[in-house]
Amino acid sequence: MSTSSTRLPEGRYGRSSDQRADRTLKVVGAVLSVLMLGLVGWFGYHYVAQNEISAEVIGFDISEDSVKVHLEVHKDAGVAGYCTVRSQSEDGAEVGRADFRFDEDATRVDEVVTLRTTSRGTSAELLGCHTG
């Protein structure tokens, strides 16, 4: 008794439908990956490019009713904006918050600003900077 083979002869009938489906899925996956990478890059670029003002707290000096905050601000020339700074007391309660404007044409502004507080603050925190 002989056994029959269910395999098709090699190269006689072309590729099977499974191989065509696999190739199609690979092409669709590659195209979607490139599109997703492009979209992430586009959003990343616009997030960085739109952020025209950045700053950091260099240091601060505390007194009973105020905190002197040394800010270093980097911005595009001619862009006006403001940075929000707050101070908290030892127990974590907010004792002062203020916006400080930066309208200079310089691209780097190094300034000490005074934040008035309702009681003794123990910290100075930069909450963010915005154009406008």
TrEMBL record:
<keyword id="KW-0472">Membrane</keyword>
<protein>
    <submittedName>
        <fullName>DUF4307 domain-containing protein</fullName>
    </submittedName>
</protein>
<dbReference type="InterPro" id="IPR025443">
    <property type="entry name" value="DUF4307"/>
</dbReference>
<dbReference type="Pfam" id="PF14155">
    <property type="entry name" value="DUF4307"/>
</dbReference>
<feature type="transmembrane region" description="Helical">
    <location>
        <begin position="25"/>
        <end position="45"/>
    </location>
</feature>
<keyword id="KW-0812">Transmembrane</keyword>
<keyword id="KW-1133">Transmembrane helix</keyword>
